[in-house]
Design brief:
Elements lengths: L3 H10 L5 H7 L11 H11 L37 H6 L8 E6 L4 E6 L6
Antiparallel strand pairs: 1-2
Helix pairs in contact: 1-3
């Protein structure tokens, strides 16, 4: 991945191409082939002379905790709504636990009610 003056020069030379191609041309591609846009844009800003600090206060925006939960999700094309491991871990939920789903149509809220100890 290019940084500094080399990054600016290469990005400038590719400026007539789509952003993803510029990022790829500068080496901002992950092992799976995915374009690392955030890293690319951050490197561009830093190459321009701005020093960025993350919300963690660590230079370079790196967090020792890895990817953080955003408390956002969306309904997938197949209609599923994924909550994700970060949230179930925060609540201390374990694999195999069962819940009754309560819907509040007026507010579009969903509640999970643990089934343990509940009688049908």
């Amino acid at each position: 991945m290019l940084v500094g003056k080399e990054l600016l020069d290469k990005a400038r030379s590719l400026s007539n191409r789509p952003e993803d191609e510029i990022a790829k041309g500068c080496g901002y591609v992950g092992p799976s082939g995915r374009v690392l846009r955030k890293s690319f844009y951050k490197a561009l800003v830093e190459a321009k002379g701005y020093k960025l600090r993350s919300s963690t206060g660590r230079p370079g925006g790196r967090s020792s905790r890895g990817r953080q939960a955003e408390f956002r999700t969306c309904v997938h094309g197949n209609g599923n709504l994924l909550i994700g491991h970060a949230y179930t871990r925060k609540l201390g939920l374990e694999p195999g636990q069962e819940f009754r789903i309560e819907l509040k149509r007026d507010s579009k809220a969903i509640s999970l009610i643990p089934l343990e100890g509940e009688k049908d």
